[in-house]
Amino acid sequence: MIKKGISEFLIICIIGCIWGCKNGKNGSISGTKSIVLERFDQDLQKFISGNITDSAQFIKEYSDFFPIYCYGILNLTQNNSQDSLYSKTGLNNFFSNSAIKKLYKDTESEFKTTDDIESGLSDAFSRYSLLFPQAYLPRVLTHVSGLNQSIITTDSIISISLDHYLGASYAGYQNIYYPYQLLTKERSRIPVDVMQVLLYTQYPQENENKTLLDEMIYEGIILYTLQQLFPQKNMGEILSYSDSDIAWCKKNEPAIWDKIIRQKHLFSTDLLLKNKYLGPAPFTSPISPNSPGRIGHWIGWRIVSEYMKRCNCSFHELLEYPIDGEQILKISKYKGKG
User: Fold this and answer.
1) Can you give the chain as a three-state secondary structure string?
2) pLDDT of residue 202
3) How far apart are alpha carbons 288 and 281 in whole angstroms?
4) Taking a C-beta distance cutoff of 8 angstroms, is the pair 306, 332 a contact?
5) 129-133, long-range: CB within 8 Å, 24+ apart, which pairs?
6) pLDDT by residue (tens digit) across 31-52?
7) Angle value at C-alpha 160, between 155 and 166, nearest 5 degrees
8) Per residue in 251-262, pLDDT tens?
9) Are 154 and 65 in contact (CB under 8 A)?
């Protein structure tokens, strides 16, 4: 069977979190406000089956997310004659599909407990609030999307589609995703993905005429910030690169940079070209069929890492102000190696 990718999108509005906390020993966080995942996925099944004491309370509790889930994620249609907004008819039809039933069952089995995810998110949000004191904490929900969007955000909610994180070896993924996409399907990625979406949402790049350099540096800033939020993870884990991908990048870093310069791609604003460097793919075609995809992210991170060694600026300044790619590159003194 020919493998195919599944398009994923984010419904996003500005969100954030706030509380006071202090660094503990060994990079741990003391004074952390614990995050507890709200299991919409489990409560929904009780609602559909009727095994819930108060359906009206369920609808009220999830009133900000339920319409998005039904009509934005599952794409259910509303019948204005007999079906109310929260009719169980469409939901029953969706979850009666054998493939969806299997996916839901496997998801519930894999995520019986979520202590590791809650712990990872609690630490990351705490570090985030130290770097960005004006942020506030949204509700964090979980759902099953049928392999639609992986992370959903609104002005008050982040919701995680758990069926996207059943592991690279999960049998149900094998004829859907390419091998390079499977690296993003581990449950350990959930805290990183949530924080990455938060950063993209809070600090979008707004310049319409961005060069490849600008976009690489923007992605590098996001990765550099994620490094500070997850100090226990290496860049391979944050970027969803295998050990061999990282080794290839390190070995060929001067050649990668040299090829970008020689091909005069650095200041290009061509969307197709930029996507070849930054978009998900099995390899970065302008560089080498042996390269990992999204190599522009990795080069951007390398530039930003060198820049931060030489520039005494805060993360607020790094993310708040418009990116001047040429200036950052100049200050970084990056020449294709550390």
Assistant:
1) CCCCCCCCCCCCCCCCCCCCCEECHHHCEECCCCCCCECHHHHHHHHHHCCCCCHHHHHHHCCCCHHHHHHHHCCCCCCCCCCCCCCHHHHHHHHCCHHHHHHHHHHHHHCCCCHHHHHHHHHHHHHHHHHCCCCCCCEEEEECCCCCCCEEECCCEEEEEHHHCCCCCCHHHCCCCCHHHHCCCCHHHHHHHHHHHHHHHHCCCCCCCCCHHHHHHHHHHHHHHHHHHCCCCCHHHHHCCCHHHHHHHHHHHHHHHHHHHHCCCCCCCCHHHHHHHHCCCCCCCCCCCCCCCCHHHHHHHHHHHHHHHHCCCCHHHHHHCCCCHHHHHHHHCCCCCC
2) 86
3) 12
4) yes
5) 129/17, 129/18, 129/19, 129/20, 129/21, 130/21, 130/23, 131/225, 131/228, 131/229, 131/315, 131/316, 132/16, 132/202, 132/315, 132/316, 133/18
6) 566 899 999 999 999 998 887 7
7) 170
8) 999 999 999 999
9) yes
Return the amino acid letter for 223: L
Check: pTM over 0.90? Answer yes or no: no
* pLDDT tops 70 at residue 122: yes
The residue to which tokens 């202090």 are assigned? 22
154: number of Cβ within 10 Å: 18
**Token pair of 325 as six digits:** 């790619």
> Does residue 227 come out as left (phi exceeding 0), alpha (psi in the -120 to 50 range) or beta?
alpha
CA contacts within 13 A on the Cβ side of 172: 18
Mean pLDDT on 264-272? 97
CA 240 to chain centre: 11
> 10-24 in b/e burial notation, b at 16+ Cβ within 10 A?
eebeebbbeeebeee
**Residue indicated by tokens 């889930």:** 69
Pairing of β 139-143 and β 29-30:
unpaired
Average pLDDT, the chain: 87
